[in-house]
Amino acid sequence: MGVVENLTAGFFQALTPGNLLFAFLGVALGSLVGVLPGIGPLGAMSLLLCTTFGMSPIHALILFAGIYYGSMYGGSTTSILLNLPGESTSVVTCIDGYRMTQKGRAGAALFIAAAGSFVAGTLSVVGLMLFAPPLAEIALRFGPPEYFSLTAVGLVILTYISSGSKVKAMLMVLLGVAVSTIGMDPVTGDQRFTFGILALSQGVDFIPMAMGLFGIAEVLNVVTKSSEVGIVQSVHLREMLPSRGEIRRSIGPVIRGSLLGFLIGLIPGPAAVISSFTSYAVEKRLSKRKSEFGQGAVEGVAGPEAANNAAAGGAFLPLIALGIPFAPPMALVLAALLIGGILPGPTFIQEHPDMFWTFIASMYIGNLMLLLLNLPLVGLFVSVLRTPTKVLMPVVAVLCLTGVYAVNSSSVDVWVLVIAGMAGYVLRIRGYELAPLVLAVVLGPKVEVYFRQSLFMSDGSLSIFFHRPISLSILLIPIVVIIMRLLVSRVTQTIRGRASAHEESG
Q1: 184 phi and psi angles, rounded to 5 deg
Q2: SS3 for 100?
Q3: Assuming Cys at both sites, which of 89, 272, 303, 412 could form a disulfide with 199, CB separation 3.0 to 4.6 Å?
Q4: Per-residue pLDDT tens digits for 36-64
């Protein structure tokens, strides 16, 4: 069948009561955790991961996808109204969004953010729908050397693009790879780093570790900080229509942000955060009203909000087509699919076409639900911020503990949860990013297996990674990226130096 026939069949499935219910739950929860500072989609998905046992894989996929891209919507609400980013992806929106609120244009800012997010989310689903099947067909040509090169390069790029210290990011990657080696050797069957604990022979379970790093650590982080909420700006529906000028100025940024965000979503790391900052920088450079940026420029809201939503959709492409999660939320989506007995990758679309096209259709429906939810219910979502931290955080902690124990009834999993939570809290306050750690835990076993399989194929020769064209091309990617970045930096410095010399001579 063609794309239209497949998509039509997908809509028939997505519009069934069960799938509609999980799509609604996903986007509603996503909007909620986007509004609440700190919890985020990772925390929510970690909490709900244990509930996917016994759940249909398509329901789990729809639910987790809705939470992820729904949180991008919710984060903009508090950024615009309170100058309080619910999500790290909405930090940039605070700059001009809150200034628009101070100028009495809060409704227009919220409308532009929601409409831009809807357009970007829809365009990203179109990209996922069009590019996932051909990418999966290309990936069928991959062997262990190509997959090793892809996963290894992913970890290298993840280290390179981390916003903090590159040394700290590298340490997190190495720590994650080390944790991933705990358990039984996949080839010899020998026990590694289990310290005589039988429960660790299968390795460190990802569920308690993720819930500890993003659930318990977040509880500790929130309760040790002040979380006072400012006065909420009241917004009425009749005030939410932007002017023609604001709409006209938003069209270009939304389209550029959508394309930019989708492409950045394919890169390992916190793509949604990177895309929002990049979009803001691009719009400021292209704008004829540079002086308005930071003072309430509508482009500073439209571009970043479109970019982070498009990046959320683009992040699903490597997971669906290659079976490799390049972002922490995608690692949790992968875990939910594996719990349901589904292995994403090159053969996923061929083996589960109904599931793929139902998922695509549900994302279209979910984006429409978000648009209808976030505009009329702005006041309701913001009022959730008034929930006292001393009430909310203990509930989150109890859910983490009971959820982890309910999965395997294992006290070891509870200890992993507690240790991971304490370690995550300490690492965060010390300035270490947890994203490289989590992705390294997920990708570590893949890197090891693909590397050893490649060496078996080549009788121990490393030349196999360089003799195969696809593998060599992938390995050259980080080198090209670094060289291009150095060249751009050198050219920029040269231009600035000439400009300064010209001003001095003038």
Answers
A1: -90, 135
A2: helix
A3: 412
A4: 765 677 777 877 877 787 788 899 999 99
